Amino acid sequence: MLFYMKDEQQPTTILVTGANGQLGQTISELYAKNNLGLEFTFVSKEKFDITNEDAILTYFRNNKFDYCINCAAYTNVEQAEKIPKIAFKVNAEGVKWLAKACKQTNTILIHISTDYVFDGEKKEPYTPSDVPNPINEYGKSKLLGEQYIQEIMDNYFIVRTSWLYSKKYGKNFYRTILEKAKKEDELFVTDEQLGCPTDTVNLSKYILGLIKEKKTNFGIYHFSDEKVMTWYDFAEQILLENHLKNMTKLVKGNNYSTFAKRPKHTVLKNE
Length: 271
Known about the structure:
It contains 8 helices and 12 strands. It is of the alpha/beta class. It has a domain at 12-166 and 198-224: Rossmann fold (3-Layer(aba) Sandwich), CATH 3.40.50. The strands form 4 sheets. It has a 6-stranded parallel β-sheet, sandwiched between helices. Helix 1 links the parallel strand 1 and strand 2 (38-43). The longest helix has 21 residues, at 84-104. The radius of gyration is 19 Å and the shape is globular. The chain starts with 11 loop residues before the first strand and ends in a 19-residue tail after the last strand.
């Protein structure tokens, strides 16, 4: 494999896709302006459609990037179960086109994946070498995206994370609990799933570490905040740290039903 030898005086150029999502916005807040020798370009789905193969390749050929951080994803688990082709178009086919463009332009791809590639039957934390077995369409679409990257590329980092949330951006569990706590007398939250909620700030720092340290041991990695809890535990933590414990009553709701199956235990081992 031939590598482009970069002039040390030139900044490291980084494309961030899915820039309007919670992770993309967090990376922008933390690193858009930096003195680390990193030059970021942020693109949203309105300007950069990863499902358009020709447009992606043209963009990569016209703009030289050292890295691409792919934050673009279809993450509506319920809707993915009802209309799988929507999820597969973005999470699998779109990732395939992105991987091909990165391969052709010698760009290192950092792709964000999910704990939902696992079935949740393992009682110990999942390692990157564990065999995936997704039980819903969202997980299947994300796994196929991973497989396309591995088939097409050599220089990639697939970073699986779990229960991702931002305190400031996007629609997620953290912000939903805050919103509901201020409006509702009771909050019903399941305690039937076990995982590790992960702050986008910490994931952003991990991703930037891969770049700043110029890591070349490519492959699949796991990153989470490693504090194991249920959704009920997490809701309780959110209320406590925002001084909202007395504003609403938290109730364990084990009759919570979803259209898509959820893995029961998806604790990831960071490695």
